[in-house]
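This part of the workshop introduces the protein records we will be handling. A record pairs a protein's sequence with a compact description of its fold. Comparing a sequence with its tokens is the quickest way to learn the format. The record below serves as our worked example for the rest of this section:
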Amino acid sequence: MVQWRGRRESRNVIDQRGTRYSGGAGGGGGGLLALLPLLFRIFGWKGAVLAVIIVGGIGLFSGGIDSALNNLTGGTSQPATIEGEIPAGTEEAARFAAVMLADTEEVWNEVFAEAGQQYREPKLVLFSDAVSSACGFAQSAMGPFYCPADERVYIDVRFYDELAQMGAGNGDFAQAYVLAHEVGHHVENLLGILDRADAEGRRGGGAAANLMQVRVELMADCFAGLWAARADQRFNLLEPGDIDEGMAAAAAVGDDTIQRRAGRSVVPDSFTHGSAAQRQRWFMRGFNNPDVSSCDTFSAREL
């Protein structure tokens, strides 16, 4: 079990667990088609690949990319909000997320300071069922995601139950890995990696664009491993078995695992997040060598 109780909770948490939306959830008229203009306006790249960047490596559990994208609704209009009840049984998960976010702040402020730079902390939005972001309207079925347009991480804390059902186990380090991966995308954004992915994506297409996206996702996994190692050094965070939980979570979200779970053949050229083995390997690379330079997936000949 991760040692988290009694420690600092981040102030960068926006709790929207009680917010509901009247109409528009799930959207009519084809979520992906509506989303593409918004994505293109924000990022200037092919909508499908950009959507994957926004969604992040963890948020494509429920049926893969197509399912995730179709749970987004684009456009600038958003449904009206209604304040409701906070879902029962989510309070401890919310506090856990706030402590883990604080831990990422401690680690990444230190890493950036070592490089003579200043870290800009992201916000974490906790929600239930659906949420409005600068990247569009999203339902919880798409899972956690990072939006570069507003520099926020979005998590429905009930997703952690789904994570366990997918074979990642019931341990809380798997949950920490989810958050650390999405914060890893924020770090990529601050370092200009997502801009680089945009530029390279303009020149690529098909399998080449997918491979570029795999590099983005595996880098975020490596950053999650970097965070885990440094957080353990600072807070004595980990106990025996925690890393095994992280490995189980990484395996559960590998593209090959997702394709097999969906009853499809494994098609490596279609991967956008990396295989189970790749995701595990890059997490451990960051954990064993907790330095940003060790996570350079763009220079790696083998992933």
Observations:
- DSSP finds eleven helices and nine strands in the chain.
- The longest strand covers residues 123-127.
- The beta strands are 13-16, 19-22, 72-73, 80-83, 123-127, 130-133, 136-139, 145-147, 152-155.
